[in-house]
């Protein structure tokens, strides 16, 4: 049977109990991440870490992903039930998140480096395993996945709103200046730790049993997944995804700092939730767009929105039309993530052989949540240094110079994607 986007699915509907269980799973998974990742860099800066130290610690969150994600697919495909792997990672991760919330002295940099690295070894594989677990437990991935994944977006939104609500107001920070509690306290990290612990319990006792299904590939599974790059179009998809993941890493690291400094916004979590709200709406509509326009054009729109977002950020500011451009740039997150990354994970699932689906998701997770975001975070440090403006004791950033670079690179990548990406029909 050939999967044709123009043909309605003939698969049976997803049962309501499984829909609820998998929706809650997505909600809690992304509520953990959304509680702390955007505010962690300014939190470290506020506590006295240098920009180089803060950038390396933030990048470290993704550096560990490049190691652990490579093995997550093999473990889930061959050695342990996916839901058990998720439970172990999240329960142990809860303790490490709490440690990150109390290690706030720059003299503890080495210890914090080890803790953040260890946490990334645990959390990042779950981003790939949660996709493969979902695909294993739904009748039709293209039809059912977006409707489930949307609850991850809701979880991220709720986490952002919660940190702005629970940690509302300001406290006295470094030098006596008043700063938002969301970046002046370890509260967001502790919120994430609590959610992570309870989610680990949920994974162990509630998620559907998803045992290993791979046979015969052994330790060569990862290399077999890499061999999918022999297909030229899939290799193009892989390289362009890396570029987009670098852009996403820059967003996670520096969007909060840009909104606070460049656009003078105080409620960063609530503002960033605008983008998650758009993401929520578009995820529900993603199956329609995939059927109507196909994977290539959906992903092309997503890539275009990444480039446009950074062009808007480059010209964004605190007042009038520049302020509106900054907000529009945030709102574009739905198009950026859903149309490129969510659609990309669906494409990878279709392209992979049955016994390599978890490994293929892990390979793509390595690229998106590991290598790409790590490089993007490091790029932020280089661009911030290059575009630093020092006026006496005041240090600010030339945000036009900062954001225009990734915007230009992404527009060029879009041209190559349109010219070279030729997805083949998938036969199952």
Keyword list:
4 strands, disordered N terminus, two-stranded antiparallel ribbon, mainly alpha, Growth Hormone, Chain: A, 14 helices, 428 residues
Report strand order across the widest sheet. Answer: 1-2
CATH topology: Growth Hormone, Chain: A
- What's the CATH C level? Mainly Alpha
Total helical elements = 14
Mean pLDDT: 85
Overall 3D shape: globular
Helix content: over 70%
Summarize the structure.
This protein is 76% helix and 3% strand. The chain has 428 residues and is mostly helical.
Structure write-up:
By secondary structure, the chain is mainly alpha-helical. It has one domain (16-420): Growth Hormone, Chain: A (Up-down Bundle), CATH 1.20.1250.20. 76% of the residues lie in helices and 3% in strands. The protein has 14 helices and four strands. The chain has helices at residues 16-46, 51-78, 82-102, 109-136, 141-166, 181-184, 187-205, 221-226, 232-262, 268-314, 320-331, 333-351, 357-386, 399-420, and strands at 170-172, 178-180, 388-391, 394-397. The strands form two sheets. The protein has a two-stranded antiparallel sheet with strand order 1-2. A two-stranded antiparallel sheet has the order 3-4. A hairpin with a 2-residue loop joins strand 3 (388-391) and strand 4 (394-397). Helix 1 (16-46) crosses helix 9 (232-262), helix 4 (109-136) runs antiparallel to helix 13 and helix 10 (268-314) crosses helix 11. The termini are close together. Residues 1-7 have low confidence and may be disordered.
């Amino acid at each position: 049977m050939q999967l044709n986007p123009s043909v309605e699915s003939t698969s049976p509907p997803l049962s309501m109990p499984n829909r609820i269980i998998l929706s809650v799973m997505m909600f809690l998974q992304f509520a953990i991440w959304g509680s702390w990742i955007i505010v962690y860099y300014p939190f470290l800066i506020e506590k006295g870490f240098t920009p180089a130290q803060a950038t390396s610690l933030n990048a470290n969150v993704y550096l560990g992903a490049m190691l652990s994600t490579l093995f997550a697919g093999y473990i889930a495909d061959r050695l342990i039930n996916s839901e058990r792997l998720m439970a172990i990672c999240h329960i142990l991760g809860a303790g490490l998140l709490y440690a990150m919330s109390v290690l706030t002295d720059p003299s503890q940099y080495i210890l914090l480096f080890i803790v953040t690295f260890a946490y990334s070894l645990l959390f990042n594989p779950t981003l790939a395993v949660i996709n493969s677990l979902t695909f294993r437990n739904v009748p039709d991935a293209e039809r059912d996945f977006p409707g489930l994944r949307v609850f991850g977006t809701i979880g991220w939104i709720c986490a952002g709103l919660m940190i702005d609500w629970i940690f509302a107001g300001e406290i006295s920070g470094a030098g006596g200046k008043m700063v938002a509690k969301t970046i002046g306290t370890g509260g967001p990290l502790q919120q994430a730790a609590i959610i992570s612990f309870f989610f680990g319990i949920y994974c162990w006792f509630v998620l559907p049993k998803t045992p290993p299904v791979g046979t015969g590939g052994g330790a060569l599974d990862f290399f077999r997944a890499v061999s999918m790059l022999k297909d030229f179009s899939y290799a193009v998809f892989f390289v362009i995804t890396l570029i987009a993941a670098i852009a996403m890493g820059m967003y996670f690291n520096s969007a909060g700092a840009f909104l606070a400094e460049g656009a003078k916004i105080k409620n960063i979590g609530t503002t960033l939730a605008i983008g998650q709200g758009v993401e929520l709406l578009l995820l529900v509509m993603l199956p329609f767009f995939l059927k109507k326009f196909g994977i290539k054009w959906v992903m092309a729109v997503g890539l275009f929105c990444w480039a446009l977002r950074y062009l808007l950020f480059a010209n964004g500011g605190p007042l009038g039309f520049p302020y509106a451009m900054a907000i529009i740039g945030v709102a574009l997150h739905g198009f950026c993530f859903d149309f490129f990354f969510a659609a990309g994970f669906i494409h990878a699932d279709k392209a992979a052989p049955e016994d390599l689906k978890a490994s293929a998701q892990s390979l793509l997770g390595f690229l998106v949540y590991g290598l790409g975001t790590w490089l993007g975070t490091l790029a932020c440090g280089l661009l911030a240094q290059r575009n630093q403006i020092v006026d006496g004791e005041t240090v600010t950033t030339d945000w036009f110079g900062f954001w225009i670079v990734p915007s230009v690179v992404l527009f060029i990548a879009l041209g190559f994607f349109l010219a070279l990406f030729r997805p083949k029909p998938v036969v199952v």
